[in-house]
Structures are given as C-alpha cells and as structure tokens.
Structure prediction request, 193 residues.
Amino acid sequence: MKNVFKKSLLASGVALLLTGCGSTTEAESQPSSLEAREDELLSACGEPEATELLEVAEHACFHGEYGPFEAVTAAALGSTPFVDVSAPHTAYNITLPARGYGYGGAVNFIPEESGEYAFFLSRHRGLRIFNGNTEVARECRLQVPEETCGSLRTAVVADLEANVEYRLEFKAIFPQNSQFTLVVEEAAHHHEE
Prediction:
C-alpha cells in the first residue's frame, strides 16, 4: 500500500509539473528525460548574438535545403565513432541506430579554426558535445524562425578549439527524430552567397 501511494504521489507531481508548463502540439518538444530537460534549460542566445546567428542561419539554411548532402549513419553510443561531419558547407543527413529504448549515436567533428560554431539541426533538441569524456559547454540555443528557414529548427552554439576531435552525441525517443539534418557553420563567419 505504501509503494502504491508513492507511485501515485510521483505521478501526480509529474502531471502537475506538466500542467504548469503548458502544453504543446509537438511531441518532440515535450521533455521525456533528464537530458531533454537539461537541454531545455540551455539559455537562449541574447542580443547581438541572436542577430548574428540568424544571419548565419540563412546561409546554413541554403545548405540544409540545397546541399551538398551527405548521408551518414552515426556510430552506436558507447562505441568509437568513425563518421566525420567536418566538411564545411555540407548538410549531413544523419541516421541514429536503435538502442534499448529509442535511438542514439555519435559522429566526430574537427574544426579547422578555433572559435564559436553553430550546429544547426532539423529537429528541436538532442545534441551533446564531448572532448574525450568531458562535455563541452554549449553557450546558447536559438530556435530558428520558420520564416528564416523551413528546414532547420535549432542552432546550438559552442566554443571549440582548432584541430581537436569532438564527439557529437544525439539521442531520440521517437522514430521520426532518429533521422535529421545537421549543418555546422562558424558562428561569426560571414558568408558570401
């Protein structure tokens, strides 16, 4: 009886928390794990970073819609990734392998120059960046407005060092989020069309 009461109390608390946060129409935007909640707490990009990032988003969007495209399958989480997504101005169509509950995988990224990089995704969340076993701090996240780009949804910015191999990890619960597009651009780099 005591165990049933604890489960009921926990379920009531979760329901109250979700009710207090409001509802959304997208299943993807509802956090279903601690990692998703952590990702939601990532601060939004402030001014003038957001304005500069929107300019970069326009360029990334061109590649997200017109390529060049490269289809890759991420390595299973916990294994060594050999897939590299470092080619500039390339839209990577990534497929995550199935894992116990959901999907998850990793790819490598090696920046040519030190600086801030924007990782544009065609989904709303699910990127973690590692240097070895140390997670790299993500500076901010920008929801890309649909009028700016119809193919990319989110940009995550991180400060990276040149010629260091970073592991990009992605997770998804729903099958529709296990395939997505990734475009990586220098956050402060000005592009000529």
